[in-house]
Amino acid sequence: MFIRGKSAIYYKICFSSALLIVLGSVFLLSSSVSYGLSEAGNPLLYFEKRIVWIILGLICIYLINRIGLEKIKKYSFFIFLFSLLLLPLPAFFHQLRWIKIGPLSFQPAELVKLTFVIFLADFLSRKDKEINNWKILIIPVSFLLLITGILQLQKDLGTFVIIGAIFFFLLFLAGLKFKYITLFTVSGIVLLTVLVLIFPYRMDRIKIYLNPSIDAKGKGYQIIQSKITLGSGGIFGKGLGAGERKLKFLPVAHKDYIYAIVGEEAGFIGTSLILILFSILVFSAFEVSKLSKNKFEKYLSAGIGALFGFQFLLHAFVVLSIIPSKGTTLPFFSKGGSSFLVNFLTLGLLIIIARKTCLKVDFEDILVF
User: Fold this and answer.
1) d(CA 368, CA 361)
2) What pLDDT band is residue 367 in, cutting at 50, 70 and 90?
3) Which of 85, 123, 237, 312 could be joined to 266 by an S-S link, Cβ 3.0–4.6 Å?
């Protein structure tokens, strides 16, 4: 029995995302036991929080489905504006990036990733024919710079890189001319360079990245241990829960370096499986974008695919020491509750678009034997 045609895309998204959520929860449990014990005497602390976030996410997706994509498009600017107003709120609570909500905490920057994509999808669906007009371009560029400024007050470079990459990708998809692509590329490189130079600790990270052995027991420790942890699993890994590096060697293993734990416990096979699942999810989102006849849904599904892809790559590149260390979560795996919830909602939006686009099928698109 096979599923072919457009229906296959929808089911690929459902299958890959379900497996990522299950595997992510399993590896979160495996990597967070010691942290749960030390923080609250509860080895299941972070796994229990994950269950809470899953339930909350399902409720939110149900509400989004009831509201419908048309209303989300209609109010996209106000949704984005609300998240933008939330972004600087941690400072009012004397926090760097988080807002405390009872026993849980929420990071507004995670929400801005999604709402900015929704805003851009709506904006481009209306203005893509005029995208090479500076008077039109200045609107999303201004919002990007505003977000960037607030994020730098929070010392958050990773979110800027992800949002900037998605912004560039969607403008390219909308038909931005080569001269503007070149201008944005050069401007982005200059801006990134400035953001690194004005914060001395970022320059230190680059120096340590280039030669972690100069401070092997200090700032270079995490980089060295990440590579050791990832490589120690070999081809098949040590077995689920049998990893040792998370216990006393690799700091924040359940957050910024959870992909290394996958490598230690599931080996090259496990890390390759995660890579394949994310690839299926991302390229299926792009296929949905290609098939969609609704411009808003076309740009939104492409933006969602890019969001998942860039987040995975940024996390994996840090773990593999391809780029300097930067605190970044792996979608559906890392402990961050707000990150998981927003990624869960993002996935829900993609599934709703895919169902609408791919399940309006002909007889040749149904199950065949």
Assistant:
1) 13
2) very low
3) 237
CA separation for the pair 291, 251 (Å, rounded): 44
For 320-346, letters b (16+ CB in 10 Å) and e give eeebbbbbbbbbbbbbbbbbbbbbbbb
- Please give the angle made by the CA atoms of 365, 367 and 369, to the nearest 5 degrees: 120
- Give the pLDDT confidence score for residue 103 in this predicted structure: 67
The pLDDT tens digits of the residues spanning 327-359 come to 788 999 998 888 999 999 999 999 999 999 998
pLDDT greater at residue 300 or residue 365: 300
**Predicted pLDDT at 123:** 97
In the chain, domain spans: 6-365
First-to-last C-alpha distance (Å) of the chain? 5
